[in-house]
Amino acid sequence: MQKNNENRIISLSAAEKLIRAHDGNMALLYIYMASGGKDLERAADALCLTLSELKSAEEKLQRAGLLPIAEFDEKDNDTAQTALKQSQELPSYSGADAAHIASTDSDFKAVLDEAEAVFGKPLSSDDTKRLCSIYKYLGLPADVLFVLLHHCAYLAQSSSRKLSLNFIEKQAYKWVEKELFTAEAAEGYSEHIKETRTIISDIKSRLDIRDRNLTESEETYFSSWLEMGFDADTIYEAYDLTITNTGKRAYKYMNGILLNWHTAGLHSIEAIRASQQPQKSTGSRSNSSNQTQKINTNETIGLLDKV
What we know:
It is a single chain. Helices cover about 70% and strands about 0% of the residues. With about 300 residues, the chain is an all-alpha fold. It has 3 domains: about 1-85; about 95-195; about 220-235 and about 250-305, no CATH class.
């Protein structure tokens, strides 16, 4: 354990934050301080940077939660992947910082222009600062942010909600967790979500859910059924059985039916109906076996309904 600590002075979670910050001075100062250096004047000589540059880097490290430097712990490796999820807010950039970055970074300026086009109005100072935090801290490239902006606009419109930077920020965290760091990966994910939403809209209509958005529980159920490999027709078949057997839209019961089909490897209407056809039997023993199988299936659904 001691040997590992000597060989690695930066935790993975700290390394991820430094990479996403896109700031060489921050990284140099962090390494210097993690190695035991404390004095900024000595750091200026060692790193060939001005005292002003180091004070700026120190302030950014503090905003990013990287100071004071914690003693390296191997368990940081286990929590690195959840560091972003646990973070409640991005480090805040000042209006002057955001304006400076926009004037010196053409990619970020392009992101701001695209955001104004998506919102259909000039960005407020607060919006500009928040986009700067997403761009600099989370490390999403400009071309990925273009896709993210239009993806969020689609989600907002399809769910009749107002597009906001708060919503975009939450989606940005999800994209980082999914490692969508290229335009190709981002576009593929966005298209997948659009296709899923189209199918869910069809399911919603078939289940006679109108004049309201889906609840979080309904979204979870519908998404999980699609991930299992069911299409809208098969999900409606389960719904029809649920209404027939319970007289109401009982999602737990419906989920039990679909789980039962999924376990049996039945994901299409044809396969399900074929499995329900009476099999040719050669005697009473075969009939008894078929009857037992039907009873067990019903018992399974009934037990799932009680869970």
